């Protein structure tokens, strides 16, 4: 843990210097130090979500915006329509190049913190999150489709915009909790932190969270996906053996299925 | 206690799945029918993707029918020649069915087809069981003997088919085509619905093929064990749809449930039990029918792509 902290601090410095030189709006360098309570999430069979706290200190008072985004995760959307008396799935759209998870957490409503142009520049908007989206086949009403997609992702807590999530403590400290849902895309998540003052981003910082499957789970999903035939044959034989074993142990005789 | 299913990509409560397995095992112990046709709808109700529900259902039956098959094999109740001919049909049917499932799934229509198949199948099976058990409760003194009627009529058209074959264990002479076709349709059902097909195979063997009752259950079990095994392998290999954790919990649950059901079954009257099962089956069919008749809350639904 100590080594990780040390690495985090070393990694932080070049990012900080970049942040300082990158913004002409700030006339003097701002100090902005941030830390996650943990930088990795292990997905096991019993994983039912996780909470990671992000806290930090700023040299000048301001508001804080945190953007958490995961790697792209393809999904499919089924559309239902009425055919005769029945509601059936009438179309299936494959959606790619959208983040599996996207959180926008801030200490005040976004429209009060930053002007539109700045929000677009830093990608601080749900509409921006799915800007690169590719859908096949193309839906008739793409605007409606986009809205439906965002609603579905928000319902699963995979997309969230919360302007009360970041708490400012006094003048120089802030903290927020990143609540990860049970179903997470794997990979490295980017956590971008923005210090905002008078409608300007005055400092930024960058953290990472690594989400990976561990042990047994990783092994099972690897084998089932990459060697699906080997998995199918060995699992079927294993479950057959288990069936015979359970039958013998429990001393039951034949029943038809 | 929640567990994450690596293939279904969802969280489920272990106790609930054990309970599902238990119900199905309980019914099979109680009434002597397998519960393949109940497992898939139950999994669909809790949100398991249709293809995973169907594929895992088939894998689950491998586990639950293995010990029964073994027991019947030991007792010599299996007509191996008949089982083999049936398997030629059901393995082909299973392979065709798994590819049909693959095509339907890529077009997004698998769920719809499964729902229709289940509403139809459960509706017919449930309704006929209901009628039968109500009749049995009304006239308990009149036992039916199906083998006595129109013996000559049925045998005549079966006997005219080419490729006649002898099955010494069942003491039958029959066209090779008949069991292959029966097997083929059961194989399709196994891959599209995740059922073993015992509820079709047993009556067909008794009434159509006229096999001796002694070998009917053993042969059908043996046949469906290897059909579901083939379908389970293909569903995992082609469609990546067999969830190992889900299947394991279901098998354990149903082994426990069967124990309990068998004990209780010896103490309860058969007609009432059949009536209860018929009501359960009809209720599941009605629930599934309502599922497609009522306007969904959300026109769109999200599924994880691979």
Give a verbal description of the structure.
The complex is a heterodimer of chains A (257) and B (306). With 257 residues, chain A is of the alpha+beta class. Helices cover 33% and strands 36% of the residues of chain A. A 6-stranded mixed beta sheet of chain A has the order 2-13-12-4-7-9. Chain A has a 4-stranded antiparallel beta sheet with strand order 1-3-11-10. In chain A, strands 5-6-8 form a 3-stranded antiparallel beta sheet, with no helix packed on it. In chain A, a hairpin with a 3-residue loop joins β10 (167-169) and β11. In chain A, α6 crosses α7. Chain B is mostly helical and 306 residues long. Helix content of chain B is 72%, strand content 7%. Chain B has helices at residues 14-31, 36-45, 50-75, 80-107, 110-138, 151-159, 177-193, 198-208, 213-239, 244-265, 270-293; strands at residues 2-5, 10-13, 164-167, 172-175, 300-304. The longest helix of chain B is centred in the middle third of the chain and has 29 residues, at 110-138. At the A-B interface, β5, β6, α5, α6 and α7 of A face β1, α3, α9, α10 and β5 of B.
């Amino acid at each position: 843990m100590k080594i990780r902290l040390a690495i985090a601090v070393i990694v932080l410095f070049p990012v900080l210097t970049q942040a300082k030189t990158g913004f002409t709006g700030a006339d003097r360098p701002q100090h902005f130090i941030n830390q996650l309570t943990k930088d990795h999430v292990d997905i096991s069979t019993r994983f039912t979500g996780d909470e990671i706290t992000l806290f930090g200190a700023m040299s000048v008072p301001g508001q804080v915006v945190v953007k958490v985004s995961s790697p792209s995760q393809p999904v499919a959307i089924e559309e239902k329509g009425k055919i005769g008396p029945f509601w059936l799935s009438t179309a299936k759209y494959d959606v790619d190049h959208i983040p599996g998870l996207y959180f926008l957490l801030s200490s005040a409503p976004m429209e009060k913190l930053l002007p539109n142009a700045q929000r677009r520049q830093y990608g601080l908007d749900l509409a921006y999150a799915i800007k690169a989206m590719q859908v096949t086949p193309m839906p008739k009403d793409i605007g409606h489709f986009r809205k439906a997609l965002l609603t579905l992702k928000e319902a699963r807590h995979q997309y969230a915009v919360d302007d009360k999530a970041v708490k400012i403590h006094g003048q120089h400290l802030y903290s927020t909790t990143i609540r990860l849902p049970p179903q997470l895309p794997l990979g490295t998540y980017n956590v971008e932190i923005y210090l905002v003052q008078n409608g300007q981003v005055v400092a930024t910082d960058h953290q990472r969270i690594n989400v990976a499957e561990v042990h047994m789970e990783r092994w099972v999903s690897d084998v089932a996906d990459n060697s699906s035939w080997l998995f199918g044959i060995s699992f079927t034989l294993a479950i057959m053996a288990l069936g015979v074993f359970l039958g013998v142990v429990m001393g039951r005789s034949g029943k038809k299925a | 206690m929640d567990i994450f299913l690596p293939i279904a990509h969802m969280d489920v409560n272990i106790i609930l799945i054990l309970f599902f397995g238990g119900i199905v095992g309980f019914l099979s112990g109680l009434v002597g029918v397998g519960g393949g046709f109940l497992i898939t709808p139950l999994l669909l109700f809790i949100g398991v993707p249709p293809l995973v529900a169907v594929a895992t259902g088939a894998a689950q039956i491998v586990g639950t029918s293995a010990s029964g098959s073994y027991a019947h094999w030991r007792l010599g109740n299996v007509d191996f020649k008949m089982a083999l001919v049936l398997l030629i049909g059901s393995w082909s049917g299973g392979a065709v069915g798994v590819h049909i499932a693959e095509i339907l799934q890529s077009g997004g229509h698998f769920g719809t087809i499964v729902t229709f198949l289940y509403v139809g199948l459960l509706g017919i099976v449930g309704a006929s069981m209901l009628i039968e058990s109500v009749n049995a409760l009304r006239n308990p003194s009149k036992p039916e003997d199906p083998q006595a009627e129109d013996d000559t009529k049925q045998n005549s058209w079966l006997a005219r088919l080419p490729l006649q074959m002898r099955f010494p264990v069942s003491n039958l002479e029959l066209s090779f085509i008949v069991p292959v076709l029966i097997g083929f349709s059961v194989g399709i059902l196994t891959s599209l619905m995740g059922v073993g097909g015992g509820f079709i195979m047993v009556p067909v063997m008794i009434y159509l093929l006229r096999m001796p009752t002694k070998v009917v259950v053993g042969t059908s079990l043996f046949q469906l064990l290897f059909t579901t095994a083939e379908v389970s392998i293909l569903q995992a290999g082609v469609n990546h749809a067999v969830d190992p954790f889900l299947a394991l919990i279901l098998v354990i649950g149903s082994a426990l449930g069967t124990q309990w059901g068998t004990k209780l079954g010896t103490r309860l009257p058969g007609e009432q039990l059949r009536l209860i099962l018929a009501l359960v089956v009809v209720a599941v069919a009605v629930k599934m029918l309502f599922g497609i008749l009522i306007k969904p809350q959300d026109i769109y639904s999200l599924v994880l792509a691979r």
